[in-house]
């Protein structure tokens, strides 16, 4: 019988694996404690400690009288979200610059034909959303394009970290576009995609950082 601490760590890993595999999607209720005991073959206290650890990590949430629900698949995302305040928006943009500039540089070196096709599709969707004039649709389309750039970098850790700042990314984008959400004031990323296609890492990095300036303080 492994030590109790090891059993708890193994149970946490099993729960996390099932969540990441989509067995319990975000928003769904996980099985009850007795059901988890039977499914995982461990004791009640072990299950309880493992669930509590994932609650502290922001992956699970206990709702009184209803059960325990999956609220995130990413333990880092809730941590980032708690740090997101208006007075830290400059820091958010600096972090975006660090991720997106390096991702663009790597993408120019590593992109595949499939990556380029995905970038073209994402760019077309972004431009359509801009001309449609709906800020919420544009924000999602812009995120999709930058996510495609990160994917083209073929660095799994970078992709996972970038995914973790999703809430902060949406907030910074919403604040950045603000009242400029009009067809007459486009924020063009075609040159970014062209630089990646051309395999020019320096130009791709320059284009990625061109619009990531700190938000002026009021």
From TrEMBL:
Top-level taxon: Bacteria
GO molecular function annotations of the record: DNA binding; DNA-binding transcription factor activity
InterPro entries per record: GntR_C, TF_FadR/GntR_C, Tscrpt_reg_HTH_GntR, WH-like_DNA-bd_sf, WH_DNA-bd_sf
Keyword annotations: DNA-binding, Transcription, Transcription regulation
Residues covered by the HTH gntR-type domain: 5-73
Pfam families named among the record's database cross-references: FCD, GntR
PROSITE patterns: HTH_GNTR
Membrane-traversing stretches: none
PANTHER family referenced in this protein's UniProt entry, alphabetically: REGULATORY PROTEIN GNTR HTH, TRANSCRIPTIONAL REGULATOR, GNTR FAMILY
Name of the protein in question: Transcriptional regulator, GntR family
């Amino acid at each position: 019988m492994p030590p109790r601490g090891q059993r708890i760590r193994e149970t946490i890993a099993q729960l996390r694996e099932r969540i990441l595999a989509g067995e319990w999607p975000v928003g769904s209720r996980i099985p009850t404690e007795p059901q988890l005991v039977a499914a995982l073959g461990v004791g009640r206290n072990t299950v309880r400690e493992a669930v509590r650890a994932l609650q502290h990590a922001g992956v699970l949430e206990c709702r009184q009288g209803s059960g325990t629900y999956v609220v995130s698949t990413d333990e880092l995302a809730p941590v980032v979200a708690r740090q997101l305040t208006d007075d830290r928006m400059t820091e958010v943009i600096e972090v975006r610059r660090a991720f997106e500039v390096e991702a663009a540089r790597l993408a120019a070196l590593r992109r595949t034909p499939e990556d380029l096709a995905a970038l073209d599709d994402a760019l077309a969707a972004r431009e359509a959303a801009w001309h449609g004039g709906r800020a919420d649709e544009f924000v999602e389309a812009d995120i999709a394009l930058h996510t495609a750039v990160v994917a083209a970098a073929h660095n799994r850790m970078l992709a996972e970290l970038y995914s973790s700042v999703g809430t902060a990314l949406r907030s910074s984008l919403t604040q950045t576009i603000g009242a400029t959400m009009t067809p007459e004031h486009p924020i063009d990323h075609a040159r970014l995609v062209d630089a990646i296609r051309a395999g020019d890492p320096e130009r791709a990095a320059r284009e990625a950082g061109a619009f990531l300036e700190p938000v002026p303080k009021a």
